[in-house]
Amino acid sequence: MYKTDVVIIGGGPCGLAAATGVSKSGAKALILERDERLGGILTQCIHNGFGLHLFNEELTGPEYAERWKARVAGDKNISVLLNTFCYSIERRGADFLVTASNAEGLVEVEAKAVVMALGCREKPAGAISLGGTRPAGIFSAGCAQKLINVEGRRVGNNVVILGSGDIGLIMARRLVCEGAKVLGVYEIMSNSGGLARNITQCLKDFNIPLYLSTTVTRVAGKKRLEGVYVAPVNEKLQPILELEKFIPCDTLLLSVGLLPEVEIAGGLGLEFNPVTNSYTVDEYYSTSIPGLFCAGNVLHVNDLVDNVSAEGELAGEFAGKFAKSGLDMSNKIEITHDEHIKYTAPKYVYNNHTGTLKVSFRVDKNYRRVIIRAMSGGAEISKRPAPAITAGEMQTLIIDKSKIINGLHLEIDVL
After folding, report:
1. Which of 58, 206, 295, 368 could join 315 in a cystine, given CB atoms 3.0 to 4.6 angstroms apart?
2. Mean pLDDT score across all residues of the chain
3. Distance CA 97, CA 368 (A)
4. What local confidence, expressed as pLDDT, does residue 133 receive?
5. What is the C-alpha separation between 40 and 22, in angstroms, rounded?
């Protein structure tokens, strides 16, 4: 049995930052990490591009992780348990009980607050009903990344990538650098799900074709993948099978989306958002149960790890304050939005103090020449023009909370 002020589930970029946030508030934190080392997915992301916003320099994933690990290692308010797998979160009176296991056996942690920083996982082939046989040579993009970057293995020679998320785009470039031929990236949607800079740097710069509104319908091969069938899709995203064609290849990488790791709190009845497949939070990153916080990619999939760390640090600081003295949760307001916006994080704000509020959101499709507005009481309280916004990139709007009079509504005006 362990006792602490705040227990943090997950030792990736969000969990590490959350621990420093807890310590900043004067509380004690315990990180529970299922892997043998801290850092999460960053340990296999050897490409650069991390840390530009938080450290003002370009770092690789392992370098970025080491910066945060050094902060945690030098903080007496932070403890860590590695190789510890968490099973459940329960209420125990006014506190929480987290059950886990490691080499010691059953581990129970009692805490006044919990920060869920579990990140997300990749969707497998079964999630997209990919037809055909089950040969070797089909990997998720993240699995292939680990095999190449960490274990030094080569996954294939002639590769097709299904899905244009950022991991898939980055792996397209990585495979070419390893001597493989990437025959194409196929995306079922009419626009890419990755960052514009990754499309340029990972595909266009390496002459890798991107096929939009096209998907892999089935795979072929017995022991090893021999090829895939691809077809364009109609407006309902259904394959047009009469236009199906065969692409010979020995490897298929799947980059078809990410799912937040939310199962650990599934029995607590938390308010759920079907758009993000995760829980809703307020401006403190608290879920619908006060004291249970959620941030980073387990809340919503972020484009940049810097944003994950920023969310984690804030969530940890608020969790520490909750554990020490509580938080003012009066005058709760729901943030509403128009049909162009899919969701907002946070979903709720407290109209009980001044300061600024950062609202993150994603749009339903690509737009050019728009104005993003925040409205309250029929008046415009914040706006930001944007030459272009895409469905693949998260948007933000900063709001002066002192201007919130009666409700808060976000809208996008297309010019």
Report:
1. 295
2. 94
3. 49
4. 87
5. 19
